[in-house]
Amino acid sequence: MQHTRIQPLGEERAHYWMVQRMARATGTDLVRAFDEGALSPDQWAATVGNCRGCGWTEGCDHWLDGERGVPRPVPQACPNAALFERLAGHMR
After folding, report:
1. Cα 14 to Cα 54: distance, rounded to the nearest angstrom
2. Is 5 a domain residue?
3. Residue 57 in contact with residue 10, Cβ under 8 Å?
4. Is the separation of the CB atoms in 66 and 73 below 8 Å?
5. In whole angstroms, what is the distance from residue 73 CA to residue 92 CA?
6. 83 pLDDT more than 80
7. Using only C-alpha atoms, what is the Rg of the chain?
8. Domain around 29
9. Quick one: which of 39, 35, 31, 34 has its CA closest to 80?
10. Does 1 reside within a domain?
């Protein structure tokens, strides 16, 4: 039998801000997406929850600390990559 290692959830506030940083780095306007109905309250909560359970937190921090000022594609290691890509497409 193969055992799966459970990833403990990260601190909620830290991951809330990590999601905000990812949005800025990728040029995704979460407030606009929310205001326009492209991001529901449940999706927002799930986005932070997905981030909290992610095992790539250190890699994400390093990626987020990289070059700033120019929107970059969402790293595929991000559990919210599909959502950010969809919202970025909605913003165009």
Report:
1. 13
2. no
3. yes
4. no
5. 14
6. yes
7. 14
8. 12-91
9. 39
10. no
| pLDDT band per the 50, 70, 90 thresholds, residue 13 | very high
Look at residue 41 and tell me if it is in a domain.
Answer: yes
- Tokens describing residue 3: 């055992």
Report, in this order, helix, strand and coil percent for the chain, each rounded to 5. Answer: 55, 0, 45
Other Cβ atoms within 10 Å of 28 Cβ, number: 25
pLDDT tens, residue by residue, 36-67: 999 999 999 999 999 999 999 999 999 999 87
| Residue among 88, 59, 62, 74 at smallest CA distance from 25 | 74
Name residue 66's amino acid.
G
In percent, the amount of the chain with pLDDT more than 90 equals 76
- The reply to whether 7 falls in a domain is no
Domain count, the chain: 1
The pLDDT of residue 66 is 86
